[in-house]
C-alpha cells in the first residue's frame, strides 16, 4: 500500500470526514432488450404505455426501439438505488404485453441488419437529431453491435469531502479544479485495475453464432447455435464487436480533464475520409450528423466516463468544461443473467470500495507504455481471464492475475473497512470476501457459472438466456406495485407524453440549421 493511500485513509478515518463517506451517491442505468415469447427481438415500437422515450426521466430507449434503458435517481445508499431499479422493472412488466426483458448482455438471435428497428423519438428537432445520430451509428458500426446491453454504475464522492483532502494536501488548485483532477486520477486508476472487475463480474463468455454475421473469428463451438471461449469472462467487452478504425487513434489516457476534452472535441471536429465519402445526406435524407471521427462525444466507446449533470440544451462536454467533473460512470459491467436486476447489492458494495480505492490510491500520469498495458490487460482478461496461471503486465513485468488480484483486494480491504466504519456493520467487508472467493475459485465467477449452466442443461446460449428471462419475469410479475406506486408511474408516463407533444408543438426553426448549431456548440468551447 502506498504512503499516500495510507495518509488519505488515516485522514478520512477521523470522525468528521468519516461521516461524509456515508454521503456518496449511486445511480444505475440498466439496458435490456425487449423480446417476444420465443426470445426473438421485439419489432414493435416502444410501448406508449411506458411513456415518451424522449422525455421520460426513468424509462427510455438506447439504440433500438427494442433496447430499453432504465435510469434510477442518485441515492446515498445503493440498496435504495436497487429498490428504485426494482420498482421500474415491476412497472414495466405490468405494462409489457406478452414480452420479456432479455436476461443477458449479448443479444438473442437477431433478424437481419435492415430489420432491427432504430429508436425513434418523435418529430421535435432534438428527437430527430437523436434518430439521425443512431442512423449514423448503424452506418458506422452496424446495428448488431448496438444491440449489446450492459449496466452503467454512476458513483460520486460528496462535494464537501474534496476540500478536506485538498486542504490536507496543500493543493493550490481551486476546489472545482482539484475535484476534477481527482476524478480524472480515479479514472486513470480504473484503467489500471478494471481488468479485476471483468474477472469478477464478466458474465458473457458465450453468444449466439448469428451475432458475428459470418465474420471471421477465433471463438470455439459449444453447440450448433452457440460460440464461446473456454476461459472468457466478457465477450461483450472484447474486440469482437467494438471495433472501428475511425476510433482506433482516439485513446485518451486521462492525464487531465483539459486533454480529455480536447481529444473529444478534436474527434468531433475532424473529418474521417470514409465517412466524408458517404456524406451526411442522400436524396434529401439525413444519414449521419456529420462525417467526423465521432458524431457526438457519447459515440466514443469507453469503459468509464467523467460526467456532469447537464442543463437543458447543454452538451456533456460543455458541462464538463464549464463546471468540472461531478461523478463517474462505470460502463463495463455485464448484466448478470442469474440476477433479476442484472446486478445485486453485494456487487454494488464492492464497486463502491473499488472506486473509492481508485480515488484514494496514488495515480501518476499514464505514459504510452503503461496506457497500452492497461488496454492489453483488460482485453486479455475479457478473453481468457479464467485461464489457470494467466499473467498480466505490471510495470513492465509479468505478474500472475491471481497474485495481483489478491494484492489489490488486500488494499481494497482497507477501504472497505473505512466504508463499514462510516456506515456501521461489515457489508463492504463481506462483499469483498465474496470477490476474494472468486479469485480463489474461478468456478464461482458469473462467466464460469454461465458455461456450467449451458453444459448442465444442454442448452444453447439463447435457450439459457430465455429461461432466465422467464424466471425473472415471474419474479417481477409476482410482486406487483401498490396502487399508489402504479399511479405515480402512470403520472410520469402521461407527463412525459405531454412534454413531448408540447416540445413538438412549440419548436421553431428547421432541422438543418438545428444540426449546424448543435455541431458548432462543441467546436466553440474553450478548453
From TrEMBL:
It holds the Pfam family Glu_cys_ligase. Residues 11-379 form the Glutamate--cysteine ligase domain. It is an enzyme of class 6 (ligase). It catalyses: L-cysteine + L-glutamate + ATP = gamma-L-glutamyl-L-cysteine + ADP + phosphate + H(+). Keywords: ATP-binding, Glutathione biosynthesis, Ligase, Nucleotide-binding. GO terms for biological process: glutathione biosynthetic process. Pathway: Sulfur metabolism; glutathione biosynthesis; glutathione from L-cysteine and L-glutamate: step 1/2. Its EC number is 6.3.2.2. One of its GO terms (cellular component) is cytosol. The keyword Cytoplasm does not apply. GO terms for molecular function: ATP binding; glutamate-cysteine ligase activity; metal ion binding. Gene3D superfamilies: 3.30.590.20. Belongs to the glutamate--cysteine ligase type 1 family. Type 1 subfamily. HAMAP family: Glu_cys_ligase (MF_00578). This is Glutamate--cysteine ligase. It comes from Pseudomonas indica.
Amino acid at each position: 500500500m502506498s504512503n499516500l493511500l495510507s495518509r488519505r485513509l488515516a485522514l478520512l478515518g477521523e470522525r468528521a470526514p468519516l461521516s461524509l463517506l456515508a454521503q456518496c451517491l449511486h445511480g444505475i442505468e440498466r439496458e435490456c432488450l425487449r423480446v417476444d415469447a420465443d426470445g426473438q427481438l421485439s419489432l414493435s415500437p416502444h410501448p406508449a404505455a411506458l411513456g415518451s422515450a424522449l422525455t421520460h426521466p426513468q424509462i427510455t430507449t438506447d439504440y433500438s426501439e427494442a433496447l430499453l434503458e432504465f435510469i434510477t435517481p442518485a441515492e446515498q445508499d445503493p440498496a435504495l438505488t436497487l429498490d428504485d431499479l426494482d420498482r421500474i422493472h415491476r412497472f414495466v412488466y405490468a405494462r409489457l404485453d406478452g414480452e420479456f426483458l432479455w436476461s443477458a448482455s449479448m443479444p438473442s438471435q437477431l433478424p437481419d441488419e435492415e430489420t432491427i428497428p432504430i429508436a425513434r423519438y418523435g418529430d421535435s428537432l432534438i428527437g430527430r437529431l437523436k434518430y439521425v445520430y443512431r442512423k449514423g451509428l448503424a452506418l458506422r458500426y452496424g446495428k448488431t453491435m448496438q444491440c449489446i446491453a450492459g449496466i452503467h454504475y454512476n458513483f460520486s464522492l460528496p462535494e464537501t469531502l474534496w476540500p478536506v483532502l485538498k486542504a490536507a494536501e496543500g493543493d493550490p488548485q481551486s476546489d472545482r479544479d482539484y475535484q476534477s483532477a481527482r476524478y480524472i486520477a480515479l479514472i486513470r486508476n480504473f484503467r489500471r485495475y478494471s481488468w479485476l472487475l471483468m474477472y469478477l463480474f464478466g458474465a458473457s463468455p458465450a453468444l449466439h453464432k448469428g451475432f458475428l454475421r459470418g465474420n471471421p473469428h477465433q471463438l470455439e463451438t459449444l453447440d450448433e447455435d452457440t460460440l464461446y471461449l473456454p476461459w472468457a469472462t466478457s465477450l461483450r467487452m472484447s474486440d469482437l464487436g467494438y471495433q472501428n478504425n475511425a476510433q482506433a487513434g482516439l485513446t485518451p489516457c486521462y492525464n487531465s480533464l483539459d486533454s480529455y476534452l480536447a481529444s473529444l472535441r478534436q474527434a468531433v471536429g475532424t473529418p474521417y475520409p470514409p465517412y466524408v465519402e458517404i456524406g451526411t445526406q442522400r436524396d434529401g435524407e439525413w444519414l449521419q450528423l456529420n462525417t467526423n471521427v465521432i458524431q457526438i462525444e457519447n459515440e466514443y466507446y469507453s469503459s468509464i466516463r467523467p460526467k456532469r449533470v447537464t442543463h437543458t440544451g447543454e452538451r456533456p462536454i460543455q458541462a464538463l468544461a464549464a463546471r468540472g467533473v461531478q461523478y463517474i460512470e462505470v460502463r463495463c459491467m455485464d448484466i448478470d443473467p442469474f440476477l433479476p436486476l442484472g446486478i445485486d447489492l453485494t456487487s454494488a458494495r464492492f464497486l463502491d470500495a473499488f472506486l473509492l480505492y481508485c480515488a484514494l490510491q496514488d495515480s501518476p500520469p499514464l505514459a504510452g507504455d503503461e496506457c497500452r498495458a492497461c488496454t492489453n490487460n483488460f482485453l486479455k482478461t475479457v478473453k481468457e481471464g479464467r485461464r489457470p496461471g494467466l499473467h498480466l503486465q505490471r510495470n513492465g513485468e509479468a505478474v500472475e492475475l491471481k497474485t495481483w488480484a489478491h494484492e489489490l483486494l488486500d488494499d481494497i480491504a482497507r477501504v472497505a473497512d473505512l466504508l463499514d466504519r462510516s456506515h456501521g456493520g461489515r457489508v463492504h467487508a463481506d462483499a469483498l470476501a465474496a470477490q476474494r472467493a472468486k479469485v480463489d475459485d474461478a468456478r464461482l465467477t458469473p462467466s464460469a457459472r454461465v458455461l456450467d449452466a449451458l453444459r448442465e442443461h444442454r442448452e444453447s446460449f439463447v435457450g439459457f438466456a430465455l429461461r432466465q428471462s422467464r424466471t425473472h419475469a415471474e419474479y417481477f410479475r409476482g410482486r406487483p406495485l401498490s396502487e399508489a406506486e402504479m399511479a405515480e408511474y402512470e403520472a410520469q408516463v402521461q407527463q412525459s407524453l405531454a412534454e413531448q407533444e408540447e416540445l413538438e408543438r412549440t419548436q421553431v426553426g428547421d432541422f438543418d440549421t438545428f444540426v449546424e448549431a448543435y455541431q458548432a456548440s462543441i467546436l466553440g468551447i474553450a478548453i
